[in-house]
Amino acid sequence: MKKIVVLGSTGSIGTQTLDVVRSHPGEFKVIGISAHSNGDLFEKQRREFAPKKAVIKEVGENKEDFNERVCELAVLEEADIIVNAIAGRAGLQPTLAVCRAGKILALANKESLVMAGESVMNSARKNGAKILPIDSEPSAIWQMLEGERPESIEKIILTASGGPFWSRSREQLEKVTKEQALNHPTWKMGPKVTVDSATLMNKAFEIIETRWLFDVPPEKIDVVIHRQSAVHSFVQFTDGNLKAVCAAPDMRVPISYALFYDEKKKTRVLNKLPRLDLSKMNMTFEKPEHSVLEGPKLAYEALKRGGDAEGKLCIADEIAVEKFLKGEILFLGIYDFIKEYIK
Ligand code: MG
Description:
With 343 residues, the chain is α/β, with parallel strands linked by helices. It is 43% helix and 16% strand. α4 (92-100) packs parallel to α5 (111-127), α5 packs across α13 (309-325) and α13 (309-325) packs antiparallel against α14. The chain binds magnesium ion (MG).
């Protein structure tokens, strides 16, 4: 039985991870869970999975103390795999802790790689840690690159759903509400990622994530808008072959791939998750270049500038989304805030 720790257990990825665990009795033993909020669900999880260690943010506890307790959980001696499903920048310290401990990290927290991609990857290499992505796009790329040589990669093409506001004009976007931004057409996710998806900042972070996770220069990373979220990315190879990974838009598919990944076995798990019905699909692909949603543009600029530009982009977005969700700024104000912050 694999011993698993789930950080951010009450969030969207955390609950779906536990759902995968639940549907495969006898495969996993949950030995640790942590959550920032949602105490009722946390208690339910604690009762159901009876982990050895459970950490939830206490009333009045400061960020640093809570983070320290989460990091202790992240390096539990007997853990075989640690799932980092923490939302936002708070995920970085636990990621670094798992890397230093040389463990297997199933990583959903993209901010870890946006904030400190180079040092995270260096630390993983140095300490023998493995990073298995559990977001749909990086999981697809990981699958497509298995057995391929780096010099054979011509281009990695990330697919983006475009979110709820794709193809709207600047004028139309001036009036959009928080409720509209939180209504994603294909994916069910937490509020931060859903807003990031509407601004295409989520794709911006995936560009930076891809750059570090797969050690690919930014000029070899492209984005294509694919409204149906059926293709989870492409890799174009030097001989003209184009690989794609397709699956129903259900996060439990990439979660399963990471949780069951075992270099020695490489057998895919049998699950009952939704299948893609190709006969019902009408797949479209569009270039995002001229969109008002300028997330990807900001990512390429940050990668070009280097230094702390990627980290600043991440921080700026986190603050801007918080402000937007509180009703303090408008949707397009998110870009204004970010641009001002990263100047
Ligand atoms: Mg994604």
